[in-house]
Amino acid sequence: MSNRQSIKTFETLAPGVRRLVAPNPSIMTGPGTNTYLIGKNELAILDPGPNINSHIAMIQKIAAGSIKWIVVTHTHLDHSPAAYKLAKSTGAQLLGKKAPAGTKQDHKFLPNRELNDGDQLETNEFTLTAIHTPGHASNHLCYMHKTLQWIFTGDHVMNGSTVVINPPDGNMKDYLDSLARLKKFNPVKLAPGHGDLLSDPETSLDWVIKHRLKREEKVLSSLRSNPPAFIADLVKIVYNDINEKLHSIAERSLLAHLIKLEKENHVYNKDGLWNIAKDQQ
User: How big, in percent rounded to 5, are the helix, strand and coil portions of the chain?
Assistant: First the structure.
């Protein structure tokens, strides 16, 4: 869930890296989805965003006909749907992972080259290395820019907010593991899918990890005090620090926490009621 920020619609962030913000602001997307134009003469478009004609036209106007690759972090509907139209009109190659079967994601995104962890896009101007970071989505990839040592994080890390982990495709354990793994790359900056650049990656990653673990402890303490509980009741306690209007969204991340804790034998579910395991009481 995202806090609205005010950032420039179009900005040069570094030599060979420009950001265009899609006109899709919302409670989930903050100021809008960040589309990154990487390179100078032959461009990679990272996360072309939603299927909004004005945004697609603006990408092409800025790129001035030099789009060679379209790279996607994941196939949620605010990140990849523009890729199909953009590739059709430019002939650019699509890179990333296709949408998982059975999900309400962008199944029109069919990459010419499906990327796995460690795969690279190498050009005369830049190199992007794919880092598989499941959690927010099972097919989520971050990308390390070799020269800048920046990581483009998609929805894995956003600026000033947390992301929804929505089971079954979202997975809280995978998410926490992926966050810890990103620290090992020692990035100089994080370029998120929503919001502005994060200039202190270690602090930002530590904050998200600690926040999630603190929320997890709150789940356990709430169940100790209020056993057993339905999710609809538990969310009011665990997420009493956010607007009640967001509780239906927060229920998805709460479920992800509960599934993780259940697999670790800390809680259990019976007939929709969640309860604390005996050794956690």
Answer: 30, 25, 45
